[in-house]
TrEMBL record:
It comes from the Bacteria. The keyword Transcription applies. Keywords: DNA-binding, Transcription, Transcription regulation. One of its GO terms (molecular function) is DNA binding. Gene3D superfamilies: 3.40.50.1360, Winged helix-like DNA-binding domain superfamily/Winged helix DNA-binding domain. SMART domains: DeoRC (SM01134), HTH_DEOR (SM00420). This is DeoR/GlpR family DNA-binding transcription regulator. It comes from Streptomyces wedmorensis. InterPro entries: Carb_Metab_HTH_regulators, DeoR-like_C, DeoR_HTH, NagB/RpiA_transferase-like, Tscrpt_reg_HTH_DeoR_CS, WH-like_DNA-bd_sf, WH_DNA-bd_sf.
Length: 275
């Protein structure tokens, strides 16, 4: 199979996965007509998605894999999901940051990608409850000549707390530290987004820590790829209306963008020119 055929297969499977999540299921005959490919090609695509645990095959089609609302994947497991979309989102989100501002980054693989794009923004103060995010800035500082800090390097404030599977620090210690601080921008990763449940996470303690982050921020920027849409974790910690801007990727369907725009002021689609 050529590289071009591989790319087409990946694009086709991404479209199939979006349809499954958006509609709650798909049929093989519908997909063959829509994508203009053979029945066998669609069945191979569904087999591949099922092996990855992305869909569950049923007679004549596929349905979403239902995860427990308390299931919390580890950082390593999440880091291999949608890496290019996360990097696009991170690049677009970094463009919102002005030098010399105080920002906060929550835990998550998208905020981890964002941290790398912020290394060249001078004189930032960064508050984070993510061990991984803090490491990005600390490693960049220690990489300076002679071990000296780089000029204009970020000042990083890492909260204490109990470590989650996604390497976020949560709980009363983290909450107390965050409540005493105030920052211009919060970049918030999320487990799931929906109109009904708002922003949610499978971790109860993380939900409260995220609430504290949102209350301490002048502006809240959600950084989440299209696969987070329709996912609901155990605990909701905010409504869509509490978000100022959602930075997402081009995989988010146009009808979802329109629906989301009714609830929050701004949706930025990474890689697209603003309307």
């Amino acid at each position: 199979m050529t590289d071009n055929q591989n790319l087409l297969a990946e694009q086709r499977r991404a479209l199939i996965l979006d349809e499954v999540r958006r509609r709650g299921g798909v049929r093989v005959n519908e997909l063959t007509r829509r994508l203009n490919v053979s029945d066998m090609t669609i069945r191979r695509d569904l087999d591949a998605l099922a092996r990855q645990g992305m869909v569950a095959k049923v007679h004549g089609g596929a349905v979403p894999v239902v995860e427990a609302s308390t299931h919390e994947p580890g950082f390593a497991a999440k880091s291999v999901l949608e890496p290019s979309a996360k990097d696009d989102i991170a690049r677009a989100a970094a463009a919102l940051v002005a030098p010399g501002t105080a920002i906060a980054l929550s835990g998550g693989t998208t905020t981890f990608a964002l941290a790398r794009h912020l290394l060249d923004v001078p004189d930032l103060t960064v508050v984070t409850n993510s061990v991984r995010v803090a490491d990005v800035f600390h490693e960049a500082q220690s990489a300076g000549a002679g071990g000296e800090s780089r000029r204009g390097a970020a000042t990083v404030v890492l909260t204490g707390g109990v470590r989650t599977p996604s390497d976020a620090l949560v709980g009363p210690v983290a909450d107390r530290a965050i409540r005493s601080l105030h920052f211009d921008l919060l970049f918030l990763g999320v487990h799931g987004v929906s109109v009904e449940a708002g922003l949610s996470t499978p971790n109860l303690a993380e939900a409260e820590t995220n609430r504290c982050l949102m209350r301490s921020a002048r502006r809240v920027v959600l950084v989440a790829d299209h696969t987070k849409w329709g996912t609901v974790g155990l605990s909701s910690f905010g409504d869509l209306g509490e978000v100022d801007t959602w930075v997402t990727d081009r995989g988010l369907p146009a009808e979802v963008r329109a629906e989301v725009a009714e609830h929050l002021p701004g949706v930025v689609v990474a890689g697209e020119e603003p309307a």
